[in-house]
Amino acid sequence: MLKRLWKDLRPIGSVDGTTRSRVTGWATGPGRIKVEALVNGVAVANCSPSMERLDVAATYPNRRKALRSGFSLDLPAGAITDDGLAEVEVVARTTMPPFRRKTIGSFRAVGPELLRKLETVSPIAIRSPFPRDVTDLVLALDPELGTDLPSEDGQRSFVERLRQLLATPGVNALPPFAAYARYLTHTYAHCQFVGRHFPAFNGLATEGAADFNAKPNSIRELFPIIHHLYVLRSHGVEGDFAEFGCFKGYSSAMLSFACKQLGMPMHIFDSFAGLPPSEGSGYQSGQYTGPIEEVRSNLRNFGAADIVTLHQGFFADSLQRWRPDRLACLWMDVDLESSARDLMVVAPAVDDRGAVFSHECTASIFAGSRPESAPRLDNPIAPLLKAFEDMQRPLSGHYVAGYTGAFWSHDAGVPVLRSEPLFDLVESLTKAN
């Protein structure tokens, strides 16, 4: 009884709409109610709800003041400085004892001069793990955030500021922010769709076999690749995307969809007959077979088949028939040292600023940012590192998730965003939507 009485004494309400200088919504409670706006913690305006709200009255029939609960509150001139960003909190409070208050909404507001400044920022020459134009906008407000972008802590600080800006009306409509948010939410939703609906089991294997699971990667492994494709394009990195080893096309379904959004041709290289013989590797010849027609069907149903070219055969053969002229990025899930060695003939085609992602990678191979891996029959990482060392393009990198790692040229490559800051950003966008 006391708990219900306490709830009845509290004001309730909601903010329905905001502009830089006006807030609309509703608030009601016991006795008289005041709605107050605070800018950066300082009260700047208040009003008493008095506008008719039939919807609120119908929802709260026991609140006798619900019918006249609507309000429209104007912020005074100068409350939001012309060149500033402000936090606006909207509070409903009772005017008689026992005093109660409730925050019914909050938003960020941007001054007109600052918005004009952001519309005309100059490019900054920096190798950022974020899109170049997005980096320019954030650093125009907070230049110090550019000093530690290589570190995970620096990336977390950047993401926190970026999340604030993407939640600020007016600022989040700027083309670089809007395009980035659209790409992230669109591709992430598609990844979740594929994760839920892609066939789960390999009909060519027996239950319990290593290749019975038809979804061998996770979204946390694949979405950093999707993000980085956007980043590379924003940095002006041209070239196609190549996947080596696709099994049933689970990763292909997610990655081809992202390539479609970017207009980036995708090439898939696979035997479509499983792994080649490799005695002593622990793998069996023919394991992980995904017939080409099955992969095509999965691409049609779950990906973007029209952006993809399939190249059938073991790498040593198919790469004799056709090789890409220029690659922005490469993803390999090939299991074997011999397969990785065969495909490294395409390493010179990878743009100096581009990236390579590989499965069969654990956190233990990274000593700081420099990867180290000893040759082994079931280890495709060692041939990757050797190929780039031989080209005098030594790689930096980091562990991504699962069994996936990211690699880029130590001297010229665009670094890959760490997974935790990336997913903090993506989840804030998807929750907001």
Brief summary:
The protein is an alpha/beta fold and about 425 residues long. The protein has helices spanning about 1-10, 55-60, 110-120, 130-140, 150-165, 175-195, 220-235, 250-260, 290-300, 315-320, 335-345, 380-390, 420-430, and strands at about 10-20, 20-30, 35-40, 40-45, 70-75, 85-95, 100-110, 240-245, 265-270, 310, 325-330, 350-360, 365, 370, 395-400, 405-410.
Could you explain the architecture of this structure?
It is a single chain. The protein contains 13 helices and 16 strands. By secondary structure, it is α/β, with parallel strands linked by helices. The chain has two domains: 109 residues, Immunoglobulin-like (Sandwich); 256 residues, Vaccinia Virus protein VP39 (Rossmann fold, 3-Layer(aba) Sandwich), CATH 3.40.50. α8 links the parallel β8 and β9. α11 runs parallel beside α12.
